[in-house]
Amino acid sequence: IAGEDRDGPNLSDSIVVVSYNLKTNHITTISIPRDVWSEALDDKINSAYAYGEAKKKGAGFILAKAEVESIIGQPIHYAAAIDFDQFEELINFLDGVDINVENSFVDKEFPIAGKENDLCNNDPEYKCRYETISFTKGLTHMSGKIALKFVRSRNSQDSEGTDFSREKRQQKVIEAIKNKLIAFAKKPNLDNYQKLYDLLDKLVKRDINNQQVAIILKNIILKRNFKQEKIILSEDFFFNPEINLEKYDGKWVLIPKSNNIKFVQDYISCRL
User: Which residue, 86, 102, 192, 179, is CA-closest to 140?
Assistant: First the structure.
């Protein structure tokens, strides 16, 4: 989520489901496009957490889990949320992450935090609200600040400007963080363990308790045959209908092809 000091602080910038099988030590991450239309909310799926929090503090997880369940057809037992600044802090604590950038791209409209409402001296295009960022194909070491820009960018004029490409980038960063955390945890250093525990305890809102997290992490680190699989719900499953002021409030949205969400649910069930 964006976080308190930003525009739309509780809108979900990214939504990822993590499925962990304790018996096989197999983890699967599923990226959910944030622009999927929800009939129940009469809005996009990325607003679920915000609506829940607006109604009652702590209800964001309840509503977000229910909405994600309706898309993937699987029960969501727990939820966690991290805001942009906390995301940066976690990656910086891990001394950055190494990411293989698949495609070079330039985004000339990346939003600058704190300038969302700047009138830009009456510039009709509000250019002062944005900065240009770019990434070059190849292995890149990223600080928290750069990694955040990498996963948030959505205004490139080429294929990297789609939400589906953005989700692939998010999966890459999540995997890199996971690899760094595992490597960190494998080093027998109680002081570092305590620092990491304190950091995660401070940064990540969640409704899963520490004992449950510890059991999963212990399995991943100590058990053999750990596997990770990534699922991207791509344009194979969704399409963008014509902008409809009456039905979709004039927003750019995604809906299941043939209006059949069961196709998505059956695919995920099969993969899991």
Answer: 102
- Report the C-alpha gap between 119 and 131 in whole angstroms: 15
pLDDT at 114: 82
pTM of the shown model: 0.84
Name the stretches of the chain with pLDDT < 70.
244-245
- What is the number of residues in the chain? 272
Helix pair 163-186, 144-152: axis angle to 10 deg: 150
Half-sphere exposure of 66 (CA within 13 A, CB side): 14
Does an H or E element contain 57, and which? Answer: none
Q: What is the residue type of 133?
A: I
- CB-based burial label for 216 (10 Å; 0-12, 13-18, 19+): middle
- Of residues 268, 97, 251, the one with CA closest to residue 180: 97
Can you tell me the distance from the alpha carbon of 58 to that of 51, in angstroms, rounded to the nearest whole number?
11
Amino acid at 245: L
Report whether 21 contacts 31 (CB < 8 A). Answer: no
